[in-house]
Design brief:
238 residues, mainly beta, 7-stranded mixed β-sheet, 6-stranded antiparallel β-sheet, globular
């Protein structure tokens, strides 16, 4: 989803059939994220999933190997809570500001990442299943242009590119759009072979320099826009 010189964010997509009022959708949701951050003298990994969103699991690898957790009140409990942690300038928090929300925030001085576990739309129709939304916000400039399914949109050209979108007009919807036209390459170029892997075709992790994508090579509809301050991946009916 996001690949920078010192930060990588992967997401797990899971297939599901669910209801949207009178519609039935055969599609998928994000259900977990896996974050890798490189600090001054260590590598930190963080996992967060909708199965147990009251916990974020953290591993710190330096001269030693440490496993810790941030923990908040249970997802369905109507109680605000927050747990925080900082390591070598990497700030992490897990919080609950709503009975059906749990939010993980990661800030490394260059990016702010937010992962929110929340209920499906029409949740009572969908067994109160949970999905995850992700947002990304750059907080400082870098010589390494970011990449990833979402990260590549921060290319600094003030041009928005609209890729393929699914048609929700019918009673039965089968999703198939995978960013065609708005991303470099194809969706499979962004797949990784393990949750915390930083290796894929357009990876920027560990790079010293990388130019932004060439938007002129994208075939999606283009339109002028203001400087992009925030981008993310959300459910269509959020």
């Amino acid at each position: 989803m996001l690949s920078t010189q010192t930060l990588a964010v992967n997401a797990l997509f899971q297939h599901d059939k669910y209801g949207l009022g009178e519609k039935t959708v055969d599609g998928s949701f994000m259900t977990a994220c896996y974050i890798t951050a490189r600090t001054k003298s260590s590598t930190v990994t963080v996992s967060f999933n909708v199965t147990n969103p009251s916990i974020a699991s953290i591993t710190i690898r330096d001269a030693t190997l440490r496993h810790v957790e941030m923990a908040i009140s249970a997802f369905s409990v109507n109680e605000m809570s927050i747990d925080t942690m900082e390591h070598e300038g990497l700030r992490m928090s897990l919080s609950k500001d709503h009975v059906n929300h749990a939010s993980l925030r990661i800030m490394d001085g260059k990016w702010e990442v937010s992962a929110v576990a929340r209920l499906y739309p029409y949740h009572s129709q969908n067994n109160n299943n949970k999905r995850m939304d992700l947002t990304f916000k750059p907080t400082s400039a870098s010589a390494v242009a970011p990449h990833g399914l979402i990260g590549q949109t921060f290319d600094g050209d003030n041009i928005a590119v609209d890729g393929a979108q699914d048609d929700y007009s019918g009673k039965t919807v089968v999703t198939k759009a995978m960013g065609e036209g708005a991303i470099e390459g194809v969706a499979s170029d962004y797949a990784v072979n393990s949750p915390f892997s930083t290796n894929f075709k357009f990876s920027r992790f560990g790079a010293n320099k990388a130019d932004p994508r060439d938007v002129s090579k994208l075939v999606g509809a283009k339109r002028a826009t203001s400087k992009l301050a925030l981008a993310g991946a959300y459910n269509d009916e959020a």
